[in-house]
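Researcher: Next sequence.
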Amino acid sequence: MGFFDVLDILGTIAFAISGALMAIKREMDVFGIFIVAFVTALGGGILRDVFIGNTPVWWMGHFYVVHFVSISVFLAIVFRNKIYFLVKSLFIFDTIGLAIFTISGVQIGVSANLDPAVSVVLGIMTGCFGGVIRDILCNEIPIIFRKEIYALASLAGGICFIILYSLNFDKNISYISTILLVVVIRVFAVRFGIGLPTYSIKKSKN
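Model: Next structure:
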């Protein structure tokens, strides 16, 4: 098992826990918690594989990831009171998952000899769309459509990875640098309240 495989597992665990925590927050039952954790961890990858015609989708050939999702759900339920009340716990797990799965998506695009821009889009899709499905199932406005900088962090990470890869940097250095960039952007944006502008229609006074 290589470093990339370890990253995939860590990303799966991080996203599964973030999904489980969101479901617990919504007071779902065990089945609901598992489904939300599953689609959060694997939904972006499923969508990516369908788009590029990579079937059966990745997790079906790597079923061990379902075991990691199950373990993550179990741990989230058992330690829900301790995990949930950690400061920014959901944010932390979600950010780690975003960073790792952005790399995963870009790497798959690069391995398939796709255009670098397409590879970056696959990274965004892999990193963001599991969270989109999670938020929809939990009746939340998806995080990428809110003011928070989320998809832009994934975009920056994808571009960073493509540049380092094209310059023949060591893969592990590329992985770590990309993860750090995504995490730093997310933390910095949240810490200082930086976000994209939002727009609304003014209500008539009549």
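Model: The mean pLDDT is 89. The radius of gyration is 17 Å.
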